[in-house]
């Protein structure tokens, strides 16, 4: 059990006013942010480099798709179980142990040199996919142990942007690494990222948590009962299902939208995604700096509606003005409401129940998002060809608007 340090040394949780107070006054939260950026950058390096290497090795798009599917399925099947583990075990030790096991599990990839060894890639993909489900619920459930409640919106806005920063850095680095040094370079970069992340998280000073008094199965069942009975949790599950469905649609049709509707090429698509990431980072910083005092349910509902309206404008404007630059402006502007909505959502997920069920709720929400994102991908493949690309993307935008209205309409008396 880790003893909490004195408050003036950056203890858990630190109380400080504004973004500067959060970052300067909380050494542990800074280290958690750094660990998230570093480990997720390594994830993007390996996912980008490995996908390219597998296709280069096998010449098969099926092999690449199979690897990605194996990696993502555990999020659907095991998210709620991972959340229960985050409630049963010390979260800091869980994060450290998972990083170490992930680093060790990547080493067999160094033996892959020919197509007949693709089974090694699939085995590693399964290993990393299963262990990777443990990280998000444990990290998100840990944040309220490091940060005072009045700083949670700011903290979540910053923490959510770790993935965007990692995406910008890791995707580029992964492509360079696999071209310059092959699969070995990619693997060693990701192993190093997990090792650094583990060291940073091992140094976190978190308060001790009581040991679980129920069995694993009993605690998992209790989490499901909570989701079924708790109106606030049900509302968040419904929101996440709508958002996941829309994300699956958008991720599938973004490239066809740029190519077919905007008439752009691969460079335009790359620029579109880069602006999206930069807009998300800028939006997260703006929320952390200026919206930290906002009520999380107001932030979630209102920002989701604005996000949906911005996306709607993005999808329909080419019908009148078939040019690329408005898309870049709109996808960048969408970063602020998207970041605000995510900060509000994560804060509500962390505070809608007591600490002993926090991981289970976050894990369940993650599973709902992963499952509906897969469904959205399938729907996009069907509807994109029947309704059309723009009409299907407008369904995604409309879903966001409906989700935001649901939060604002039903949160009184449900979310504290």
UniProtKB/TrEMBL annotation:
Topology versus the membrane: Multi-pass membrane protein
Keyword Transmembrane: yes
Start and end residues of each Major facilitator superfamily (MFS) profile domain: 232-416
CDD domains for this protein: MFS_MefA_like
Protein name: MFS transporter
Entry's localization field: Cell inner membrane
Membrane-spanning parts: 32-55, 61-82, 94-112, 118-135, 235-259, 271-290, 297-317, 323-348, 360-383, 389-410
Signal peptide limits: none
Organism: Nonomuraea purpurea
Keywords assigned by UniProt, alphabetized: Cell membrane, Membrane, Transmembrane, Transmembrane helix, Transport
InterPro entries cross-referenced by the UniProt entry: MFS_dom, MFS_trans_sf, TM_effector
Pfam families: MFS_3 (PF05977)
Domain of life: Bacteria
